[in-house]
Design brief:
By secondary structure, the chain is α+β, with helices and mostly antiparallel strands. It has seven helices and 24 strands.
């Protein structure tokens, strides 16, 4: 299938035998010249969207997603409910001995960069079933009834639990033979993809999610201590959040948008109209989320006896099925207070700082500072 040496070579290859990085970069900027129009029009003017009998915001097809309410332990808010598993699929091939991935320069209405590096296939089940009334997503056939021998890795991963209710996507990488791709698709090495991290908001969150699975190809087992800790945590956390019909009380008629107050993570939902060429549908209306507060995220790696470990934080969100996931080390440099006595944060070494954006099909112009640190430690018993 794919071995460790091929992964390393792909990471180290910035100018591949297929195409140089500069050539790919030029194509990327050209794709950004294909202007599209996104206008905020207000919730009340959204075509095909309205309140249902339970006062939730829904599409006339009853597909895609709906905006509904949520009741958590100490607050009420809104959340996206999408009872379907979408597909985030990436094709890969070996070209002249080098591992390449088929990347789409995809335009989404909420993108800061008009185009972003995206999976080969990025589609909700509604889009796959053509609920939008348009064409089939390109290359969908490669991920339908795929031969198991060609699946490099496949896992269902959750969307963020503060904005989605128990939403998962099928993340899948499929090995195929090389072919000449359509316009706005490029075969790229991991090294070429990583180099795009030097350009703010150029790699979308869906592609980052799929490619994160590559690590699991060769590091699929965690130790018994970690497994026991996860089991203890699952036993100790009770999910107290529940869906609650009606978001109409959060609708601000004067501003024609939803305003969801939350002392930690307030957000708004606005209505937009979109015109984009080279899509399954060239124009449509939809709601988009606007984050009221943008955060800085930090991930710390611990170097112990020449091995690297990652410091993960327990992230409790109402939309996660178990009530939590293990996530980044800190938000806005707010670390677990117990760690302050065990780690000398003054010795943190900044490895990289980049801006990465949320998925532009649901979030409007949302980019987040992400910092990567390392620190050498003498003990892992934190």
């Amino acid at each position: 299938m794919i071995n460790y040496e091929q992964i390393l070579e792909s990471i180290e290859t910035v100018n591949s035998p297929l195409e140089s990085f500069d050539s790919i970069l030029n194509s990327f900027w050209n794709s950004n010249d294909n202007k599209f129009v996104v206008r905020e029009i207000g919730i009340s003017k959204l075509k095909d969207w309205s309140f249902d009998s339970q006062k939730n915001l829904v599409h006339k097809s009853n597909a895609f997603f709906k905006l509904t309410g949520i009741k958590a332990r100490n607050y009420n808010s809104g959340i996206l409910l999408q009872n379907e598993i979408g597909t985030l699929g990436v094709l890969c091939c070996i070209y002249k001995g080098v591992l390449h991935f088929l990347i789409q320069f995809k335009q989404e209405p909420g993108n800061i960069q008009q185009s972003q590096l995206s999976p080969t296939l990025q589609a909700t089940l509604s889009n796959q079933n053509k609920k939008h009334g348009g064409k089939n997503p390109k290359y969908i056939n490669y991920f339908q009834n795929v031969n198991k021998e060609n699946i490099v890795i496949q896992k269902n991963l959750p969307e963020q639990g503060g904005r989605y209710w128990r939403k998962y996507n099928n993340n899948i990488i499929v090995l195929t033979n090389f072919f000449e791709p359509d316009k706005d698709y490029k075969w790229m090495t991991l090294g070429q993809i990583y180099k795009f991290s030097e350009i703010n908001s150029s790699i979308n969150s869906c592609l980052r999610s799929v490619l994160s699975l590559i690590y699991a190809l060769f590091n699929n087992e965690c130790g018994p201590e970690i497994k026991n800790k996860i089991a203890e945590t699952e036993t100790g956390i009770t999910t107290v959040a529940q869906l609650q019909d009606s978001v109409i009380d959060f609708y601000n008629q004067g501003e024609d948008k939803f305003i969801f107050p939350d002392k930690n993570e307030p957000f708004h939902v606005v209505g937009v109209s979109i015109e984009i060429k080279n899509r399954e549908v060239s124009s449509w209306n939809q709601p988009l989320l606007v984050e009221a507060n943008l955060h800085d995220y930090a991930l710390i790696s611990l170097v112990f006896e020449s091995k690297r470990y990652y410091l993960l934080n327990l992230e409790k969100k109402p939309g996660y099925k178990s009530g939590f996931i293990y996530g980044i080390s800190a938000v806005n440099n707010k670390f677990n207070s117990e760690l302050n006595d065990k780690l000398n944060f003054d010795k943190l070494k900044l490895l990289k700082k980049i801006k990465m954006s949320e998925e532009g099909g649901r979030f409007l112009h949302t980019d987040i500072n992400k910092s990567f640190y390392e620190i050498e430690v003498k003990d892992l018993n934190l």
